[in-house]
Write a structure and sequence with these properties.
Layout lengths: L4 H18 L3 E3 L10 E4 L4 E9 L3 E2 L6 E6 L11 E6 L4 E6 L5 E5 L13
Parallel strand pairs: 3-6
Antiparallel strand pairs: 1-2, 2-3, 4-5, 5-8, 6-7
């Protein structure tokens, strides 16, 4: 099945919501599509806003560099808009949760995958 980018994004959002529910989190979704975050996670201590992104497999930057994904935000996002990015790698069906440190761009490589391969929202 061929999906356009909007359908891929929606699919990633629903996969994320299901994954969080499987882990025991309470999940809410904003009613407006124009929200700067895609989901709200209740981790038992606080509410966490999450912006969900999806990408295909990691591609090498060059023949000698490790595979990477560049996660690029937008100047319309600021640190207070959401707390985490949830990055879904479509080809490997993997999730990575990355704190939003007011990122404009973030290079996600094989070497920093383990650091972000957790659903521990703090």
């Amino acid at each position: 099945m061929i999906l356009d980018s909007n359908k891929i994004g929606c699919l990633a959002e629903y996969k994320f919501i299901v994954k969080c529910m499987e882990l025991g989190y309470i999940v809410s979704k904003p009613t407006l599509d124009s929200s700067k975050y895609d989901a709200i996670i209740d981790n038992g201590e606080r509410l966490v806003k999450v912006q969900i992104k999806s990408r295909t497999k990691m591609m090498p930057k060059s023949k000698t560099a490790s595979p990477q994904i560049t996660l690029t935000g937008s100047k319309i996002y600021v640190k207070d808009d959401f707390d985490y990015y949830a990055l879904y790698i479509i080809d490997s069906d993997e999730w990575f949760v990355i704190p939003n440190g007011d990122l404009i761009s973030f290079v996600f490589t094989e070497s920093n995958q383990k650091k972000y391969s957790t659903f521990a929202f703090r």
